[in-house]
Amino acid sequence: MDGLYVGLMCGTSVDAIDAVAAHWQHGRPHIVATHSQPLQAALQHDLLALTRAGRAQFDHLFALDAQVASAHAEAVAALLSTHTIAPTDVRAIGFHGQTVYHAPTADPPFTVQLGDPSRLAVATGVPVVADVRRADIALGGQGAPLAPALHAALFASDTAPRAVLNLGGIANLSLLPTDGAPITGFDTGPANALMDAWCAAHLGTAFDADGQLAASGATDATLLRQLRSHPFFAQSPPKSTGREQFHLGWLESAIGTRNLAHADVLATLVQLTATTVTDALAQALPNCVELLVCGGGRHNAALMARLRAHVDCAVVPTDSHGVDGDWVEALLMAWLARQRLAGVPANCPSVTGARAATPLGGLYLPPEAV
């Protein structure tokens, strides 16, 4: 299914909508346009409050469902108009929506992403592929991570075992062996989400720019040991996680009444991410020769330095392999839309634990396409 697709992603960090237009030809994507649109402060506040509370009244919940869709429609309009792309040129939009609760091990398992895809299809005039996680969960999978299949298509090597690390709000690994073994992958734990939450709550900033404050601090061994005692880190794959487990309240509870410097808290969080990624990589792909890093966390110099100090392989941004690391997750959504229109499976049972491979998402058509 060659052609032009749009991918939309607003991840665990809940800070901006990333939009990418990518043209597929002969099975390979070429990014032709990008746009990043910060979330309005009120919408960001309400979404973060919802993930912290874990519950909401129906009127509030579905008002947010509509608002998330409208915000993504604005991002699509800006992307297309800025780059002079007609909506009729786009085959489909891949729309992740905003995850507000992910519970793949609940009884019954479920995941919730806000964002009304019908509203987005009507507003843009473009078919929308959305609700991409629940088919995998219905088949007994985790519903996440979904990126390893795309990572394999973009970055797998016949000679060099590689891993791809996405440093978003949550860190996740895709493991790409060369010996015929199946692709695997899983979430390793928190990345930007906790650091950004600490900065917002205690420093009045959205994030620690370039990791400068973390670089000036020292790891607190007691806090690191307590954070690492979370049972998620010892859990065997398949596994995925989110703000339900790793949130500001959990971090502040671990600190307790201790008066730690902000720089030391951030340095400890950087160390937490670096060591949990390193441990997971060493266990799952010990012969890895290259770790490719994408996501916003690759701009955190302190975190990248800790990773390079700990892992036993080269650490490079995906940019060095021809894909801008800021747009890999949005590109994933464009790829999922392409797979859905082609009727081709997009999940990796070896990653999620699903009983079978399946196309992901539902197709929502604008009125003129019905």
Labels describing this entry:
13 strands; alpha/beta; 5-stranded mixed beta sheet; globular; 6-stranded mixed beta sheet; 370 residues
* E-strand count: 13
**Percentage of helical residues?**
25-40%
Spatial strand sequence of the major β-sheet = 3-2-1-4-7-13
In terms of per-residue confidence, which ranges show pLDDT below 50 for 5 or more consecutive residues?
A: none
Structural class: alpha/beta
Largest beta-sheet characterization? 6 strands, mixed
Tell me what the structure shows.
The protein is built from 13 helices and 13 strands. The protein is of the alpha/beta class and 370 residues long. The strands form 3 sheets. It has a 6-stranded mixed beta sheet with strand order 3-2-1-4-7-13. It has a 5-stranded mixed beta sheet with strand order 10-9-8-11-12, sandwiched between helices. It starts with a strand and ends in a 6-residue tail after the last strand.
Task: Please give the structural blueprint.
Blueprint: E1 3-9, E2 16-25, E3 28-38, H1 41-53, H2 58-82, E4 90-95, E5 98-103, E6 110-114, H3 117-124, E7 128-130, H4 134-138, H5 148-155, E8 162-167, E9 170-176, E10 184-190, H6 192-202, H7 212-216, H8 221-228, H9 248-255, H10 262-284, E11 290-294, H11 301-310, E12 314-317, H12 328-342, H13 349-352, E13 362-364
Parallel strand pairs: 1-4, 4-7, 8-11, 11-12
Antiparallel strand pairs: 1-2, 2-3, 5-6, 7-13, 8-9, 9-10
Summed up:
The protein contains 13 helices and 13 strands.
